[in-house]
Amino acid sequence: MKKLTLIILLAALLSMGAAAHTQPQTQPAAAKAPAAASAEVRQATFDMVWNTVKEKHFDPDFGGVDWDKVREQYAPRVAGVKIDQELYSLLQAMLGELHQSHFQIIPPEAVVDDDSKEPKGGGAGLDIRLIDGQVIVNKVEAGSKASAAGLRAGFIIKKIDDMTVGEIVARFSKGTESPALTRIRITRAALARINGNPATTVRLTCLDERDQTREITIEREKLKGEMSQRFGNFPPQYTEFEAKRLDGGIGYIRFNIFVTLVMERIRGAIRSMSDARGIIIDLRGNPGGIGGMAPGITGYLEAKQVSLGAMKMRSGRQAFIAFPQQGAYLGPVVIMTDGGSGSTSEIFAAGLQELGRATIVGEQTMGAALPSIFGKLPTGALFQYAIADFKTPKGVLIEGLGVKPDIEIKLTRRALLEGRDPQLEAAVGVINQKHSKQERVSAAR
Q1: How far are the Cα atoms of 154, 247, 336, 429 from residue 252, in angstroms, in the given order?
Q2: What are the pLDDT digits (tens) for 196-255?
């Protein structure tokens, strides 16, 4: 059963980045850095990573990559490694030769090492997106220190303390990953620098609404969310959940990652919205998480048994079957996505889209939907690796392509400066339109 439980874990891309809100990702400040590994341990770590891919990759042809030749290219470089971080960079570069998501090395210091529900780090009270190549503030929490300091949605961040955004971008510009994954890494790296321990400060150099340069110093605050439970080798994750009613009685649900902590809350929210005109599920910026939650949530939105698709491994095939639950909500559903929606978010959105159960509004998703598991390496680092591919009920591969929205609405800096969320506005419009159509049909009967 343990093996099966791990197999259905579609681990979130940049799962540590999903906890980037808990800078420094997130050992307590008093924790000591892990001891440097010996040359023998580093070699064993390299061998484990290469052999794991060789033996467990879902495609024995590795998508056309000569994996034996890749070893010949990278193995001799291990002896020249001086510090563990160099080894992790080398391993990540080797894994990049596969040009697929869900292959990553997570250093020990980037892993939450306890099961406390209390977040260890702090945040600056803002979120960011990469829009037209610029790191732009897309949300400032009401009442936060960031808001009090004068930061506003739509501001362009040019520098974080003494590091320019250009320097952050340059770190990822020579990678072999897809542009979508590169954008996410840039965003998460910038956010990790912005956030940090409570009571410390961060200095942002921004362009304001008049494109005037402003320097804003923000005191970081204690995070308001909580940490999820450990799930096998999948570490605890910083978790946010929001459920409310919008104008007109429309239900709105948002959560930042698929972890078991939010499952009961999602279930309760959907049931409490049984009389809603429609429900909007906001998956923007949600990189995925536990794959089994996608059919679990679907069961509260469907009247019959359905499939969200299937994953194919070397050893066989497994479908993602959703079973209808008592009191399921059967009204209009809209799912909001963007380039930060990945993995389980994509499985959920694509499945409900093909079933005709939900309308997808927003931007194309990440295209990172390979089921994966976590293993521990001899150095103490975690190794996330894909063990299957995934196709929708109609046989469409999401990996590298993403989910195309039914209604594409770009988030723009202008809209943010105006205090508008055009994607949410469009989602509300879809709900109202569908509800009006249902009323007309009912009246005609």
Answers
A1: 23, 10, 11, 13
A2: 999 999 999 999 999 999 999 999 999 888 988 888 778 888 999 999 999 999 999 999
Q: Across the chain, how many H-helices and E-strands are there?
A: 13, 22
Under a CB-based contact definition with an 8 Å cutoff, are residues 242 and 255 in contact? yes
Mapped onto helix, strand or coil, the DSSP state of residue 57 is coil
- Which residues contact residue 170 at a Cβ distance below 8 angstroms, ignoring those fewer than 6 apart? none
My answer on whether omega of the bond before 26 falls inside 30° of 0, hence cis, is: yes
Round to whole Å and give the CA distance between 86 and 292. 35
Among 227, 60, 208, CA closest to 140: 208
With a cut of 70, which residues of the chain have pLDDT below it? 1-35, 112-116, 175-176, 439-445
Contact 20, 115 (CB under 8 A): no
Rounded distance between C-alpha atoms, residue 290 and residue 296, angstroms: 11
Per-residue pLDDT of 409-444, as tens digits, reads 999 999 999 999 999 999 999 999 987 777 666 666
Q: Residue 54, SS3?
A: helix
User: pTM (2 decimals)?
Assistant: 0.88
Buried b (16+ CB within 10 A) or exposed e, 88-108: bebbbebbebbebbbbbbbbb
Q: Which helix (H) or strand (E) holds 242?
A: strand 241-245
Give CA–CA dist 346/166, Å, rounded: 30
CA–CA gap between residue 342 and residue 259 (Å, rounded): 14
